[in-house]
Amino acid sequence: MGVQDDKGEQLARERTPHKVESAPSSGYPTTCRSVEVIFAVGGWSPKHAACHVECYSPLTHEWKVMAPIPRQKCGAGVATLEHLIYTVGGHDGTSCLSSVERYSPKTNEWRHDVAPLSGGRSDVGVAVLGGYLYCVGGHDGVTCLSTVERYDAEENRWFRVAPMNSRRMKLGVVALNGCLYAVGGSDGRSALNSVERYSVEENTWFTCPPMGNCRESLGCAVFEGKIYAVGGRDDIIEHCSAERFDPSSNQWSPLTPMKSKRNKVCLTVANGHLMAIGGFDGMVNLQTVEAFDSESRAWRSFGNMKNRHPGGGVAVVEMNAFV
């Protein structure tokens, strides 16, 4: 059956994406070009209080510090929905949070009028599917969670959907071919290599082939129709290894390792590049970025962020630039 609200009413599954309007002309000859801009959001540790947003423009090849984040937190889920960036849950150093904030790249402003989650949770996985924002797993400060909530921006409400088969925190969540995938993470006792797939139509989670390595706090993204899982750590050490899942063969295969070990790494795709951003190498929190070349199947250095973002997230927003 489909997803239902608390009253058992059937919910619509699709939303029409919002379109960003072009900026007015300055009177000089210009060309409008659509680019995907990367935003690194939040993150916090006692040594690195990265309470700002910073963005990377492919036109200038530079990172730029933007608006400060309203609330210091780490372990929040970060995702883009209709050209707005959401930070979901997290931990402020004292307790797990249910709050959700929304950032507008166009205005460089934060809004606090987003409905909260049903309860506080940190180290969640988030992804957008069918015009909805999903918050998956995490922990509430006491136990690891299997519960899943879905956000409807038009109604400004969170709705419960079917829970995962396993409890997972510090997991990767991606959307591919109309389904959600929950990848790895930890069950609160040990790192996992297991994977689950959520069918919206059936409101059910199905078991998928496991990864070759156990990974928590991994980077996970969809690139060229495949799921990439990189970095993270097992129960002993941080990883630089990488692997990918091909849904056509239903198999995972190993890839060339990254140049650096990266636990708590953010993996994203922008302007045709798969990029591993930041993370922790077992000694220090990283500002460095690596990009994967699918032709050579190798990683290369891709510059540095301005700041470290331990426990932060990244989001990509398509924006119009005038050149």
UniProtKB/TrEMBL annotation:
UniProt-annotated stretches for the region Disordered: 1-26
InterPro entries: Kelch-typ_b-propeller, Kelch_1
Domain of life, per lineage: Eukaryota
Pfam families registered for this protein in UniProt: Kelch_1, Kelch_KLHDC2_KLHL20_DRC7
TM segment ranges: none
Composition-biased stretches (Basic and acidic residues): 1-21
This protein's UniProt keywords: Kelch repeat, Repeat
Name of protein: Kelch-like protein 20
